[in-house]
Amino acid sequence: MTTRSRILLAVAALSLVLMYVFPIWTISLDAPQYPEGIGMYIEINTITGHKPNDLNNINGLNHYIGMKRIVPESIPELKLMPWLIGGLVVFGLAAALSGKRWMLYTWTVAFLVLAIAGLVDFYLWGYDYGHNLDPTAAIKVPGMAYQPPVIGTKKLLNFTAHSWPALGGWIAFLSLGLGVILSYAEWRRAKRSNHTVAA
Amino acid sequence: MNPTRMKQIGFGLATVVLIAAIGASCAGSQQAGSTDDAASKVYVPPGQHDEFYAFMSGGFSGNLTVHGLPSGRLLKTVPVFSQFPENGYGYTEETRAMLMTSHGFIPWDDAHHPELSQTDGVPDGRWIFINGNNTPRVARIDLSTFETEEIVEIPNSAGNHGSPFITQNTEYLVASTRFSVPVPQRDMSIDEYKGNFKGMLTFIKADTPGEMDIAFQILVPGYNYDLAHAGKGPSHGWMFFTSYNTEEAHTLLEVNASQNDKDFVAAVNWKRAEQCIADGKARQMEAEYYHNHLNEARIAVSEVKRSVTVLEPADCEGLVYFLPTPKSPHGVDVDPSGEYIVAGGKLATVIPVHSFSKMLQAIEDEKFEKVVDGIPVLQYDAVIAGEVENAGLGPLHTEFDGKGYAYTTAFISSEIVKWELGTWQVVDRIPVYYSVGHLMIPGGDSRKPWGKYLVALNKITKDRYLPTGPELAHAAQLIDISGDKMKLLLDFPTMGEPHYAQGIHADLIKPRQVQFYQLQDNKHPYAVKSEAETRVERDGNTVHVYMSTIRTHFSPDNIEGIQVGDEVYFHVTNLEQDWDVPHGFAVIGANNAELLIMPGETRTLKWVPRRAGVFPFYCTDFCSALHQEMQGYIRVSPRGANVPLAYSTGQ
Fold first, then answer.
1. What is the ipTM of this complex?
2. With a CB-CB cutoff of 8 Å, which residues 54-83 of chain A face chain B?
3. Which of B241, B313, B318 is nearest to B282 (CA)?
């Protein structure tokens, strides 16, 4: 790896530390009676409200449609995520330090797999919350499910749900993007140098 | 003579004067109503907020009402001295103590003068104070909650009219007695009024919530003390009070108190008072008075105090001076610079304006006419800055726009007169409908008025609104004062008599709003923090129900084992932690009120069932789609029945 690649890889790995500080994802809900907005953040190890009581209030609203309470302590992925991200930081730094290309490739692929698995997991949780409703719920709309979008905007009865990466998520995407670009550049460089040697 | 009769005479006189004024000038120049573009100037589109809050006294309703300006919309009624069934104020176990006085429980009053707290002579939006005129009291309303949080009773006072005017950093509020009475009170002949009845000027410490107290009182001659305003800027440290009945009459005052050509503005140097008290020149006097305030659990508690510090002017040289002022002065208003003291002589033909700097000079030069009870009377010519002529009949109150102009209400001629400070020339006048008392410019009695609007607070509204039987709506009128000429923009009805009002830019209040009370900080002894803690406990004939509310159920919602004649206390905690989600609680046969419980708060309703049966309770404040389902039952068995105490939710 070039020195520049190693430095950029170190930056990409280290920037993931910010995921411990900034929320990764945000889901906000718009409704006429919430002009001030209501919503929640998915953080590396928990779920919090945009405002201190938002999560509680969302749970309160969800009980009308029979949705399960969102209890961050009961979501095992939130216990796992700090370790996974920590592993990525450590392995990424080690790769930058050693300068070994295979380590860069491994890091990038592992990160990509984790990112996809994370989004799939997020979808599955959303599916579960949105579909497995209490049959005794007060409000039952035939054919209606309340699964929030993984990314984008969706109308759910009187609420419009918006789901987008938050700062920590954008940082992760940039870091991953940087890993992909570095891998590609290093792969090209390696191919070129092999070619040169062969010639 | 009864008040109605007086109103009629006042109104008749006003009509005559108005006709005369129209006859004398050009009829076409009179503004009979609103100007064409007025509607757009008061229109606040849906979803947008008014620019100003206006706080209006509810007069004899004992309330304070909150309006938006320029729309005039009524936003809220804040109960202060009156019981209020809408939210249980004065009925619930947590608020009843707020209305305790040395005369017992007094659930009403006559609230006249709202007064915003100030910092550096400018309204700061922290608190608003208001007086109880009948049973002398002063209340503090917190503007982060719009709730009455403190009331202090004023001893040795009778008719707390000149109150609660504030010093420029909220150091003190004053309470001057309207009626002089025997001090201390005793049984004596009313004939012996002269020389025996006394007035009292009270200074109340006001700068710490929960700790309002009588700082000191000043014993003054037995006149009627009417209104007050504090000095500001250079005159900070002084308080000015108007008086009438310097004749010391005690019967048929409309004649007997209107004989002297001049009465007085009493100028009180309160910094001097602090000095004299420090020098030991005051005495302690026995006096019983109540101080009611919310404790940390937001429960009103009463503390009875037993003595006050009293100063006599004769014992403290330089404490009080009288400024002769024609004639039966009513309002006394200090201009934004703090130099001019404008008195409204309600029977005078001119508006006398005193000069603070000339007053200081006259004191130094000892230009005294005479001395009354140790109080020097300064020479009128030595203190007067100017007289405004042709300022309407019955000038009462003056406020300022901060641009060099003063606006005075003329009660008898029903108009507002604009005049210039310094030249004392009238520059504009506008009729109002009818019999205007106070006026209000947001910040118009402060050092920095927002000189955009003026609100006229009128006593009579004949022909202005749809009629409502013998009693018509009370009224305010909004006048644009941004230009050279005053323009009437809006009539709007008010709740109760809008005696005085205060206005403040909304940006100073909006950011301070409490949205809900933190449940974990709820220190009410009967609070529950979750449904798991809800329960019912019996203690002899007393039953405590620890109940919670959340959208959209009560817990418990089925209660059994109550007996006829039990004293049942419903302690209801609202578990919501969201803005604008109060819950109500009402139970059949409750002979006090309902509860309205703010999110995170606990309120208690006492209920004594009189007959056996199964009785519903329900939420009164619409809270969500399933509000109507928010209800429960309480089973009442005959006295001595063996139905066990039981409670449940969702069984």
1. 0.84
2. 56-57, 60, 64
3. B313
